[in-house]
Write a structure and sequence with these properties.
Layout: H1 2-31, E1 38-39, H2 41-59, H3 62-71, H4 76-105, E2 109-110, H5 111-146, H6 149-179, H7 183-190, H8 222-234
Antiparallel strand pairs: 1-2
Helix pairs in contact: 1-2, 1-5, 1-6, 2-4, 2-8, 3-6, 4-5
Protein name: Hemerythrin-like domain-containing protein
Keywords: Coiled coil
Organism: Duganella aceris
Length: about 240
């Protein structure tokens, strides 16, 4: 069962990364948006972008792509749990759709609407956090008992191929970026950076609070919001 243990540990590491991103965004909403009486379209758009990134990150997890398909129809309990997980997923998706509808209808967000939006974000985070908890506490236990040894080897191989593909994609993107640089910049990029220059990329960038009077000139530009969206996907 060493292959099963290795696979479940790898999946748990991925779960922890997604959980930290969800908790980070939840903390931002509670400490900022929930304290406001108004919300600008920039803030609402930022929230929608981050929720979309977090949802996609959950949807493309290895657990979702490789472990769950192997459990479909294995046992009655597994099918019941998968249905529960699907309901939590649908609850999170509905929260995103609600915010997207608000984004298309409102010029600015005030009072009760702010509370409703924050409640939707809370529901989104709670649903996905609950799903992650159920997967680790219940789904992984069912998988360990119900999945046969040869299936674990197949899943482990899929995980390794998945990681290899990601590495190749990043290398290809880096090669393309290097090719666009001048010879001087390419030589500079090849030089090792000092230890104190190694900076980890944050999973989420927080949009500053802006008043409703600033709605006509948002504090954060489109490019900054796109960068925040990309950072969330990297997480």
């Amino acid at each position: 069962m060493l292959t099963a243990t290795y696979t479940l540990v790898a999946l748990s590491v991925e779960q922890s990364s997604i959980r930290l991103s969800l908790l980070s965004f939840q903390k931002y909403v509670r400490s900022t948006l929930m304290q406001q009486n108004t919300m600008t379209l920039s803030q609402l758009e930022y929230a929608c972008e981050n929720l979309d990134s977090l949802y996609e990150a959950c949807r493309w997890r290895k657990t979702e792509m490789y472990l769950i398909p192997a459990l479909v129809g294995v046992t009655e309990r597994a099918d019941q749990l998968l249905e529960e997980l699907n309901r939590l997923n649908q609850s999170a998706l509905m929260s995103i759709r609600l915010l997207q509808e608000k984004l298309g209808m409102l010029a600015d967000v005030r009072d009760e609407q702010v509370r409703l939006i924050c409640d939707s974000i809370e529901n989104f985070c709670a649903a996905l956090l609950k799903r992650l908890e159920k997967e680790e506490q219940e789904l992984f236990a069912i998988a360990r008992a119900a999945i046969a040894g040869e299936t674990w080897f197949s899943i482990a191989n899929q995980l390794m191929m998945h990681d290899k593909h990601l590495v190749e994609m990043k290398r290809s993107a880096q090669d393309s970026a290097d090719g666009a640089r001048s010879p001087v910049r390419r030589r500079a990029a090849a030089m090792p950076a000092p230890d104190d220059a190694q900076i980890s990329i944050p999973g989420l960038q927080v949009l500053p609070i802006v008043s409703i009077e600033d709605a006509a000139t948002p504090a954060v530009s489109r490019s900054a919001r796109q960068q925040a969206h990309g950072d969330a996907m990297l997480k």
